[in-house]
Amino acid sequence: MGKHRDGPKRSEVVSALATIAVVVGVALFGFLAATGVHAYQAYHSVEREEFASASQVRSKIAGRTPEQVAAAVAAASVDFHPPLLDKDLLTLVVAERNQQQATIIPFDLPTATSPALPDSMFASYLLVGQEGPRADAMLLILLPSDGSTPIIASLPRDLYVNNPCIDDYARLNTGLGGCKGVAGGAELLALMVQDYTGIEVDHFARIDFSGFADIINALGGVDVCVDNPVRDAKAQLDLPAGCTHVNGDQALAWVRTRHTEEYVDGEWRPVAGASDLTREQHQQEMLFKIADRMASFGSLSAFSSVANKVASVVHLDSRFAFGDAVSLAWNFRGITASQVRRVHISVKDYVTSTGAWVLLPTNTFNAELAKVYPAAAR
Q1: Is 49 among the domain residues?
Q2: DSSP state, 316?
Q3: Which residues pair with 244 in a beta bridge?
Q4: Cβ count within 10 A of residue 114
Q5: φ and ψ of 267, to 5 deg
Q6: Are 14 and 156 part of one and the same domain?
Q7: Order of strands across the sheet with 230-232?
């Protein structure tokens, strides 16, 4: 274990946005920690998930019987290669591939992995927003051990990376399904993230999207600003131009929209560049909006109902300590959205042989991380 695990883990950035929702979760606990017993009680009511070390989980996976491995591989056709979620997008991608020579994924896709970094370099937190059995939003937060400002990376749910349970490529978000009999969802997803980024995940937090809306309502809503009226029928988004104080349902729609339209010159048209990557920007922005709302509360009593709501919908890993929450509040004090460093993950569309739409990484995570944190270059 790295040095940052021995001292207070300024970590709990896990509280910062596990889908954004989780952000409220632990970040709130971090803020409340200073006020004492109520925060402590709320924190200990949070449900926990098994989260063994990466080496322990890998050892269990490696020690499976041939029958267990075969069963996992057989299940992959259903669990790890689901059909396309967006038929319109599939049509566009297939049309593009028909005009070009089809890309063939090599057995070893070099951009899907990164060299291992020293465990002492960062305290790392994987925040996950869940819808149904799979992760719908994933945020990796890194706290450099040198004390510099935090680093955030939104991990595309459809990123095509190695799944050690089946020793094959799969969408990143499917890792939340776990590896039957040997690893839970938090543990398997953390391994997939580690293989892709080269960084071992120290802590994990998740929240269901339905719980996110409840938390926003408990906070009294947040402001969302847009230049033109926007809508998305699938996400149930409907916002006028300007800044609107929205409730939980519209806040959730804003962080989930993938088919955003805007009203310009008397007609509705698709927002240029709207995609999963745009949605990730919304999620990161929401993290700081939530932090601002929490900062606006001036008393413990004002936080009580929010703390209880968070405790009822957030899940934390089994190794996460109360001191980490206290530490989070201290390390994130005064940090604004413009000060946080963001890792951009470059991808391209691809349709697999099974007809699933995925995103292929076009550069290693390490190469992208090095652009904002040169010390990580390998």
Answers
A1: yes
A2: E
A3: 224
A4: 23
A5: -150, 155
A6: yes
A7: 237-239, 230-232, 261-264, 267-270
Place of tokens 């993950």: 345
C-alpha to C-alpha distance for 193 and 326, rounded to whole angstroms: 26
Contact status, residue 178 vs residue 188, Cβ threshold 8 Å = yes
Percent of the chain's residues with pLDDT above 70: 66
Q: What is the pTM of this model?
A: 0.77
Nearest-angstrom CA–CA distance, 28 and 219: 10
Place of tokens 């009294």: 220
Per-residue confidence (pLDDT) for residue 292, from 0 to 100? 67
Residue 152 burial (10 A CB sphere; 0-12, 13-18, 19+): buried
Task: Phi first, then psi: give them for residue 40, nearest 5 degrees.
Answer: -60, -45
Backbone angles phi, psi at 86, to 5 degrees: -130, 100
Which CATH number does the domain housing residue 103 bear? 3.30.420.590
Q: Are residues 105 and 164 in the same domain?
A: yes
What's the domain count of the chain? 2
| DSSP string over 95-149 | HHHHHSPPP---SS-GGG--PPPPTTSEEEEEEEEEETTEEEEEEEEEEETT-PP
Give tens-digit pLDDT for 46-95: 777 889 999 999 999 999 998 888 888 777 655 444 444 444 445 554 55
